[in-house]
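Quick one, tokens below:
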């Protein structure tokens, strides 16, 4: 069984701007991240898929890294 040599980076994502007025894809991405209300914060493990979602809605969220 391989050992984990790299610690997983956790990202704190906070919704700071409403998705009202943006495309349906942006709203669906915000919802898929687990964000439902303004100033709600969720934590996810950093993955390439997550980074792609965040790059799509980077104008609506703030991102903080936790190690």
């Amino acid at each position: 069984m391989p050992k984990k040599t790299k610690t997983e980076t956790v990202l704190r994502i906070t919704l700071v701007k409403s998705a009202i007025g943006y495309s349906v894809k942006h709203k669906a991405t915000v919802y898929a991240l687990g964000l439902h209300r303004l100033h709600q914060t969720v934590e996810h493990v950093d993955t390439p898929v997550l980074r792609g979602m965040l790059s799509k809605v980077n104008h609506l969220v703030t991102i903080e890294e936790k190690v």
